[in-house]
From TrEMBL:
Xref: Pfam families: ABC_tran, DrrA1-3_C
GO MF annotations in UniProt: ATP binding; ATP hydrolysis activity
Origin species: Latilactobacillus sakei subsp. sakei (strain 23K)
Matches recorded under PANTHER family: ABC TRANSPORTER ATP-BINDING PROTEIN, DOXORUBICIN RESISTANCE ATP-BINDING PROTEIN DRRA
Domain of life of the organism encoding this protein: Bacteria
Entry protein name: Drug ABC exporter, ATP-binding subunit
Major localisation: membrane
Length: 313
């Protein structure tokens, strides 16, 4: 194991019955990174995460956390991380402050240290005014903030986050990410799954994209976007009735896959982008198809996701 690798996943496989859910996946996560695991529903993300957190045994391959093998050294491996799942692990009968103090004691903190840590986290997650209220009064966003706060009590070396901001309002999502970034700034490593590709694009240092249990691509967000190559054309047709005809024109000129969202066509451009755009605009004019919006843009992580996963069987 390299010293800068906090997590190493080597040729990991998992089957349920005859179905291969995770197929020969390998990647590394370096210290102090935010590493994003992306993939469509059923891609194998949750199964892989459960194996990394010792809840499932891989059929083949190995996983190490800070050098500890999750199978042969499971107790030491579990001491390296904390997990925040999609469902909160907090005690519904206790207040936010009491939950944090309880988990502080469970993490080996003294009574005084657990009180100090609880107050720090209540402040960081804007929960101070609600600290002594019953959790029955908490909204879903408040519970998610408390759940993440609980997972940070022991300042874990590795934090696994399973879709940490799903269902949260924008303000709460910003608070969550501020807390995650503060943890990374202190030297921790974060491994997360998320449905929000713009979050992965903005915050993740590296990304692994999986589909049907296989690793499709990995790299920095920019490296993944560069794999699609060059610029792409985004064109919005004014009249919905003209969309299919516009689609046929763009398809005929570019001979590239085209995605459609409402009245907007998006397609990658080849090397001779300007001549192709001129031809498209001329043909649209001849066909009397009006365009309300046209722009050239670099591919987004959403484009990478759709291009590399949709329709692969």
């Amino acid at each position: 194991m390299r010293e800068d690798n906090v997590i190493e996943v080597r040729n990991v496989q998992k089957k349920f019955g005859q179905k291969k859910v995770v197929q020969d996946i390998s990647f590394n996560v370096k210290k102090g990174e935010i590493f994003g695991l992306l993939g469509p529903n059923g891609a194998g993300k949750t199964t892989l995460l459960k194996m990394m957190t010792t809840l499932l045994r891989p059929d083949e391959g190995q996983i190490t956390l800070n050098g500890f093998n999750t199978l042969s050294q499971s107790r030491q491996a579990r001491q390296q991380f904390s997990v925040t799942n999609q469902t909160a692990a907090i005690d519904q009968d206790l207040s936010a402050r009491d939950n944090l103090r309880l988990f502080g004691r469970l993490n080996g903190l003294s009574s005084q240290a657990s009180r100090i840590r609880a107050d720090e986290l209540l402040t960081a997650f804007d929960l101070t005014q609600l600290a002594n209220q019953a959790l029955a009064t908490f909204s879903g966003g408040m519970r998610r903030r408390l759940d993440l706060a609980v997972s940070l009590v022991g300042r874990p070396k590795i934090l696994f986050l399973d879709e940490p901001t799903t269902g949260l309002d924008p303000r709460t999502r910003i608070q969550m990410w501020q807390a995650i970034q503060a943890l990374v700034a202190q030297g921790s490593t974060v491994f997360l799954t998320t449905q929000y590709l713009e979050e992965a694009d903005q915050f993740a240092d590296h990304i692994a994209l999986i589909d049907h249990g296989q690793l499709i691509a990995s790299g920095t967000p920019n490296e993944l976007k560069q794999k699609l190559g060059g610029l792409q054309l985004s064109l919005t047709v004014t009249e919905l009735a003209q969309l299919s005809q516009a689609h046929a024109i763009v398809q005929d000129v570019l001979k590239q896959p085209i995605s459609v969202s409402e009245q907007t066509l998006v397609s990658p451009l080849g090397g001779d982008a300007l001549p192709a755009i001129i031809v498209i605009l001329n043909q649209l004019q001849i066909a009397k198809i009006t365009v309300s919006h046209l722009k050239l843009e670099t591919p987004s992580l959403d484009d990478v996701f759709l291009k590399m996963t949709v329709g692969k069987n």
